[in-house]
Design goal:
The complex is a heterodimer of chains A (170) and B (206).
Chain A: H1 13-23, E1 29-32, H2 33-40, H3 44-56, E2 60-63, E3 74-77, H4 79-99, E4 107-114, E5 133-138, E6 152-158
Antiparallel strand pairs in A: 1-3, 2-3, 4-6, 5-6
Chain B: H1 9-27, H2 31-53, H3 64-89, E1 92-94, H4 95-123, H5 128-154, H6 157-174, H7 177-205
Helix pairs in contact in B: 2-3, 2-7, 4-5, 5-6, 5-7, 6-7
Classes of the chains: A alpha+beta (170), B mainly alpha (206).
């Protein structure tokens, strides 16, 4: 497994496609080499190269049709292969959840110019207020604002919450 | 090879989804086509038979042209079924292939037995009315039973209800007599197939 948690045996375009295609078969079924090649639109050499890697990892098994010496083998995803694909899918989902904008590290919740009447309302569930930092600093003159007001920007920065919470409010 | 390792997380997720959809679509039998072809054959063929016997007193049997229409419809439906099942199943071996082979053989076996039975009924002097009822309701009994059992094999609820419906149509239709049973076959029997085709097509789209 790489640091990202994505199985490098599966995490390559061709091998991902092979694994996923074979995973759509019912357990106990296999797919001929030529049909797999046709479904994936690959050259035989390319397919063989990647199949070898998957077979070495124990993810793909092959059976030779009895009686027909000329016929190519039929392939199937082993139990280990199915489990690896499930782990890969889960890892992928977790990475995507973490990468979504609402969860990217620290987040600016409010950044808006306000005048001397300060009131900012907003609530984000799952984020304890004590863990947020509030800061304010004077900003450039507001366009068209009266000269006796002091425009500033208030920033509320909160640490990343669990994966469930949604974007900014307030 | 080197390029193969450059795969972003989002790209990988998209590729995974696309590959799965692509494989499922190509490996799936086109059920709407099969149901649609049989529905059309039943609706048009049995409809023609019904028109040809309408007002017969006493009942003599369907006209040759009407039987030809039904025969052509059935032939087309068999071809459509054979094409989509071989296309989807090409290269697939193992449990599914063996199940599919036995399922495929149940059709000629069922119909061979039915037609032999009707032949025997003719031989032992069954009237045209009895033969008319047997010839019309009999095939629906075979179709209905095969579907109900095959639905259990593939856990396909639409196929299960379609089979049950065709059994009901056959049983009720038989009691409407040799003329009425043809109308039942066309409208309720063929209609059941067409409804199943529409439901499966809608489900596959969603």
């Amino acid at each position: 497994m790489s640091d990202a948690g994505l199985d490098p045996v599966i995490h390559a375009p061709v091998r991902l496609r092979i694994t996923v295609t074979l995973s759509t078969l019912r357990e106990g079924d296999c797919l001929s080499f030529s049909r797999l090649q046709q479904l994936l639109d690959l050259t035989p050499g390319n397919l063989i190269t990647h199949l070898r890697k998957l077979e070495e990892a124990g993810y793909v098994g092959s059976v030779k049709p009895v009686g027909d010496g000329q016929a190519r083998t039929a392939l199937y995803l082993t139990h280990a292969g199915r489990a690896a694909l499930e782990r890969y899918t889960a890892a992928l989902r977790q990475l995507l959840d973490q990468a979504s904008p609402a969860n990217r590290g620290e987040m600016e919740l409010v950044q808006r110019p306000v005048t001397d009447q300060l009131m900012v309302c907003g609530a984000i569930s799952g984020v304890p207020t004590s863990s947020c930092r509030f800061s304010w600093e004077p900003s450039g003159a507001l366009r068209g604002s009266p000269t006796n007001t002091r425009p500033f920007t208030i920033t509320v920065t909160c640490p990343r919450a669990g994966p469930a919470w949604s974007g900014p409010s307030g | 090879m080197a390029n193969d390792d450059l795969l972003g997380t989002r790209q990988a997720a998209e590729l995974l989804q696309l590959s799965a959809d692509h494989a499922r679509r190509r490996l799936m039998v086109n059920q709407p086509l099969i149901y649609g072809a049989w529905g059309a054959a039943w609706l048009i063929g049995c409809g023609a038979m019904w028109l040809s016997v309408l007002g017969q007193h006493p009942f003599r049997g369907a006209a040759g042209w009407a039987s030809a229409v039904l025969g052509a419809g059935i032939a087309l439906a068999i071809v459509a079924t054979a094409i989509t099942t071989t296309r989807a199943g090409r290269g697939v071996g193992g449990v599914s292939a063996r199940q599919g082979m036995m399922y495929g053989l149940s059709w000629p076996a069922g119909f061979a037995a039915l037609f032999t039975l009707i032949g025997a009924a003719t031989h032992f002097g069954a009237s045209p009315a009895v033969l008319g009822v047997l010839g019309a309701a009999g095939p629906l009994v075979v179709v209905g039973l095969i579907y109900v059992v095959a639905a259990g094999m593939w856990l396909d609820w639409i196929m299960f209800w379609l089979g049950g419906w065709e059994l009901l149509v056959a049983a009720v239709g038989a009691w409407t007599g040799p003329v009425g049973v043809l109308l039942m076959n066309a409208v309720a029997g063929g209609g059941g197939f067409l409804a199943a085709a529409a439901v499966v097509a809608w489900r596959n789209r969603a």
